[in-house]
Amino acid sequence: MSQPRGFRQTNAWLHTWIGLLPGWLLYAVFLTGTISFFHEELTVWMKPELHHSVAQPDTAARALAAMSERAPDAALWQIQLPSERSPVVQVRWYAPGEPMGRGSGQSLTLDAATMEPLTARETRGGHLLYRFHFELYGLPRIEARWAVALATMAMFIALITGVITHKKIFKDFFTFRPRKGQRSWLDAHNALAVLALPFHLMITFSGLLLFMFLLMPWGMDLAYDGDRRAFFNDTRSGRMMAPPPAATDAAPAPLAALAPMLAAAEAQWPRGVGSIQVSQPLRSDARITLREHGAASLRDRGNSRQLQFDGVSGEPVPMDSPQMPSITSQIYNVFTSLHLIRFGDTTLRWLMFISGVLGTLMIATGMVLWVVKRLPQRRKQGRTPLGHHLVESLNIATLVGLPLAIGVYLWANRLLPAGLAGRGDWEINALFGAWALCLLHPLLLRNYRRAWQQQLLLCGVLLLTAPLAGVIGGGHLFSHIGRGHGLLLATDLTLIASGLAFLFAAHLYRRRSA
Measured between alpha carbons, how far is 290 from 279 in angstroms, rounded to an integer? Predict the structure, then answer.
């Protein structure tokens, strides 16, 4: 390994090696993170039983009536209304005095038109990829988060050293020389890096901020004497819902009409109402709280505005103004909200998704460039070092193998019987089993040109045909067209476009090889 000389050469050396060593993990994190911008939509796509639900103008009122029948004695109702990301109504209720927490209360998924319960197939859906993005899978949670955090830090250093290395980076952005081997790959890598450079810096830095309490917990431990639970309780106190109240002696009373409350809320909130919470329902001291769809501001990290009404008279009830976070908290909230994009509408999500695709391709071209740059040396020596064999195999298994495995995951979702015991685990096993085979394939084949071409071709076919797999397992492209489901159609078209891209790459690779 030659020693670098000079400041720019030192940064180029650092950029190369700090980008290579965690590169495969970074690619997986970036790819699954990009998909996670639409992980809720993908989860709905993977539950065909929910596709028949269509929101109606009176869905909110119907949901309230349905809860009056199903849980008249509950202390608290929570109703999540349909949105552009989900077509169903999600309801949860708690008994008097029952603590709120994971697994507590009772919940149902309801059809938005009929309010009939819907039972969807067992699947982790897009949520699996979302969790994999920051804590991998099958590893201890803390160790996995440390691995992703260190890889994110390496990515941030690679971005900075890359900018320093390319003194003509903006000029190079407008330069692309096709069919020039190493030069073409470098041009593509530079162009992809510069095209979405603000996004790359923002998403990487904000990712580090999300890991801040893992990487640098000393201030938190000092201020709270090591009691981290107390720290998080304090920082989240403004976002936590009050626990369900205990039973009272209030007299039974019908709930006021919901329509005037919705009209008052929608007059203030252009995005409309996202959820309804009813405390002490069907009693004289009932309170109805409406929450805005989406976040009020970046500074509050996804908090939505609220309006509260007397549940019997329908009159507005004054609420305490939420306490404004400190300046440091506001800065933290802005960056982490940008990363999580819980506030964004569909257009902004698409912009973030496209930027994520560019970032994923930037990492991929950098990994390929490392191999292409060393091909002349391998040809001169007449042999391929073991390390190069390993890099080439890992490139194929990660850059193509992971999208291929996700294609297998989607097909498994449609082909496995809906009532299969442990169905969600079988889908996950299909994903990681396919990914493992994608690593064994180039190692055993020992012909990297064929391995690249075969995996590119198979990946393209799986993704291209995934929207049609539902002809067998329910929920397919033609049924989505017939119902006019924009959410599902967008998912189908994205899969088709991705499949065509991989098939086109296989075609180019075959022509290049010939």
Answer: 12
Mean pLDDT of all residues in 293-301: 69
**One domain, residues 285 and 407:** no
Q: What's the distance, CA 139 to chain centroid?
A: 19
Query: From CA 177, how far away is CA 333, in angstroms rounded?
Result: 42
Same domain? For 313 and 442 the reply is no
Residue type at position 195 = L
pTM, full prediction = 0.90
Q: For position 239, what pLDDT does the model report?
A: 46
Contact 469, 410 (CB under 8 A): yes
**Distance between CA atoms of residues 390 and 17, nearest Å:** 15
Q: Are 262 and 302 contained in the same domain? A: yes
Cα 284 versus chain centre, distance: 42
Which ranges of 241-308 would DSSP assign to H, the alpha helix? 259-268
Residue 74 in any domain: the answer is yes
Closest CA to 275 of 7, 67, 16: 67
Same domain, yes or no: 99 and 247 = yes
Q: What is the pLDDT of residues 339-362, one digit of tens each?
A: 988 777 888 999 999 999 999 999
- Burial of 248-284, coded b for 16+ CB within 10 Å and e otherwise, reads eeeeebebbebeebbeebeeebebebbbbbbbbbbbe
Residue 130, both tokens: 């979302």
**Residue 237 predicted with pLDDT over 60:** no
Mean pLDDT, the chain, rounded, equals 87
What is the model's pLDDT at position 104?
80
Half-sphere exposure of 26 (CA within 13 A, CB side): 29
Contact 74, 53 (CB under 8 A): no
Distance CA 261, CA 64 (A): 13
Extract the tokens encoding 368: 């390929």
Radius of gyration of the chain (CA): 26
The answer to whether position 109 is within a domain reads yes
Distance, in Å, from the CA atom of 150 to the CA atom of 128, rounded to the nearest integer, reads 21
**240, pLDDT greater than 50:** no
Mean pLDDT of 481-506: 89
Q: Are residue 466 and residue 382 in the same domain, yes or no? A: yes
Does the pLDDT of residue 514 top 60, yes or no?
no
User: Tens of pLDDT along 41-70?
Assistant: 999 999 999 999 999 999 999 999 999 999
Q: Which domain holds residue 475?
A: 7-48+125-133+339-513
Indicate if the alpha-carbon torsion angle 321, 322, 326, 332 is positive or negative. Answer: negative
Please state the domain count of the chain: 2
What single-letter DSSP state applies at residue 82? P
